[in-house]
Amino acid sequence: MAKAGDKSGGSGKKGLKRKAATEEAQEAAVGEDGTTESGVQPPTTAAFPPGFSISEIKNKQRRHLMFTRWKQQQRKEKLAAKKKLKKEREALGDKAPPKPVPKTIDNQRVYDETIVDPNDEEVAYDEATDEFASYFNRQTSPKILITTSDRPHGRTVRLCEQLSTVIPNSHVYYRRGLALKKIIPQCISRDFTDLIVINEDRKIPNGLILSHLPNGPTAHFKMSSVRLRKEIKRRGKDPTEHIPEIILNNFTTRLGHSIGRMFASLFPHNPQFIGRQVATFHNQRDYIFFRFHRYIFKSEKKVGIQELGPRFTLKLRSLQKGTFDSKYGEYEWVHKPREMDTSRRKFHL
């Protein structure tokens, strides 16, 4: 047994010596300029035949290694092209062509015929005669009632309480099993202009109903990504009682214009800028992001923002004429995913 081991050990040492000698011979054959004796420069990277795919490699580790090398090579080529383009632009100076606009889903949006033109006479007439005309004509002041679904849990209750500090002149009411159809007449008799209902599922807020009183409309939103004040990092102190400024972004279609006017009617007309608070409803790809910030003036020219919370994301599900009526209500717009979400570049708001 010992002799067999000696033989195998001797053959292994001989194999290593032969391998080392072969590598030394190959290194000696390559000159200082990187060429071989025949004058041909060895390839630095593996050259794949045309039509070859990395996915054809059956060995998983080898396939992963080759894919990593290919990604590194692509990254180097992209960086080199970017540096070359930058040098060319610096050399041309003012004569350099303008930078190309990057292609995004937003700027490649499918054209919508219902995009609102602010100078259109028909749009102006609709604004003067719609359900929000009394608010924008300053005939009424907002008074909001915030309520929840039956038997709300702690997270939903805290969200309602924090919303009441964001929206001025808002009141939180717990339903105690009372139906919405009975709440709405009581709200109208007590001069409430809007009703907000926060729905929940498995102790998590997942829906919001916004109904404008007394004549509607009523919007139903899906709510997601809810973050309360304690869950926001580097948040500011609790908001003050000053009336915040409101910012509405990218509500461009007729439907989006109606939703934007509905959000605007929740806040009083004259914001108190001394409070430096701002509520933002930012529409991007039909998702409405709500944020509540405070301006921080660092100097005369520099300003920053500090989030106060809460934050959440809304997705419009339906818009109904009149007040909330789940049985006989007439819907102006209903989101139908299979029919409407046929293209990623088509948006409704």
TrEMBL record:
Query: Is the keyword rRNA processing in the record?
Result: yes
This protein is called what? Ribosome production factor 1
Q: Where is this region: Disordered?
A: 1-59, 71-105
Q: What does this protein do?
A: May be required for ribosome biogenesis.
Q: Quote the subcellular location field of this record.
A: Nucleus, Nucleolus
Record SUPFAM superfamilies: Class II aaRS ABD-related
Q: Which UniProt keywords apply?
A: Ribosome biogenesis, rRNA processing
Stretches with biased composition (Basic and acidic residues): 87-97
**Principal subcellular localization:** nucleus
- Under the cellular component aspect of Gene Ontology, which terms does the record hold? nucleolus; preribosome, large subunit precursor
Pfam families membership:
Brix
> Which GO MF terms are attached to this record?
rRNA primary transcript binding
Question: A GO term (biological process) for this protein?
Answer: maturation of 5.8S rRNA
The answer on whether this UniProt entry bears the keyword Magnesium reads no
